[in-house]
Write a structure and sequence with these properties.
By secondary structure, the protein is α+β, with helices and mostly antiparallel strands. It contains 2 helices and 9 strands. About 15% of the residues lie in helices and about 30% in strands. The N and C termini lie far apart (about 30 Å).
Length: about 120
């Protein structure tokens, strides 16, 4: 299956698909909730996969539109803190689910808190 640009999906690399799903590197997910403001702790705890999408489109940035899987340590820290805040107003936490029930938490935008170290 191709990504939204027509390129093949790659294992381990999160990407959006042309049919508005999200590839986490192993499976496809569909959007369930596009802006989770309440119950963030529950979503972060339920998520088997967490994807960070910086939405950074700054010129000369090495992170242009970067999407990456959160490490186990980052996921544990997010669950421990239980709530996320974003630098930009457009930032949000989304819930995605795969056909087999795997929950994915997508963090869109740069985090103000908590601070994560990969």
């Amino acid at each position: 299956m191709p990504d939204f640009s027509g390129h093949p999906l790659r294992p381990g690399e999160p990407e959006y698909t042309a049919d508005d799903r999200l590839w986490d590197g192993t499976r496809l997910h569909r959007l369930v909730d596009d802006d989770v403001r309440k119950h963030q702790r529950r979503l972060l705890a339920d998520a088997g996969v967490v994807v960070l999408n910086l939405l950074d489109c700054s010129p000369n940035s090495p992170r242009l539109g970067s999407k990456r899987l959160a490490s186990d340590a980052e996921r544990a820290h997010l669950v421990q803190v239980g709530v996320v805040r974003f630098v930009e107003e457009e930032g949000c936490l989304q819930r995605w689910e795969s056909e087999d029930g795997m929950v994915l938490a997508l963090l869109l935008g740069e985090l103000r808190s908590p601070r994560l170290r990969p």
